[in-house]
Amino acid sequence: MTSLPQPVPGAKKLGLVIDLDTCVGCHACAVNCKEWNTGGHHAPLPDHDPYGKNPDGVWFNRIHSYEAGCGGTSRTVNFPRSCLHCEQPQCVTVCPTGASYKRAEDGIVLVNTDICIGCKLCSWACPYGAREFDEDQGVMKKCTLCIDRIYNEALPESEREPACVATCPSRARHFGDLGDPNSHVSQLVAEREGVALMPELGYQPVNRYLPPRQATIPSKPLERPVAGGGNALLRMLDKVLSR
Amino acid sequence: MTPASSVLLLTTLTGFGYGLLAWVGVLAALGLLPAAPLFLPVAVVVALALATAGLAASTLHLGHPERAWRAFSQWRSSWLSREGVASLTTFPPALAFAALWWVLGPDAFATRAFGLLAAALGLVTVGCTAMIYASLKPIRQWHNPHTVPDYLIFAVFSGAVLLAALRALWFGAAEALAVAALVAALIAACAKFAYWRFIDTQKPLVTLASATGLTAFGTARPLDRPHFTENYILREMGYQIARKHAVKLRRIAVGLAFFVPAILALLAAFGVTPAITATAAALVALAGLFVERWLFFAEATHVSTIYYGR
Question: What is the pTM of this model?
Answer without folding.
Answer: 0.92
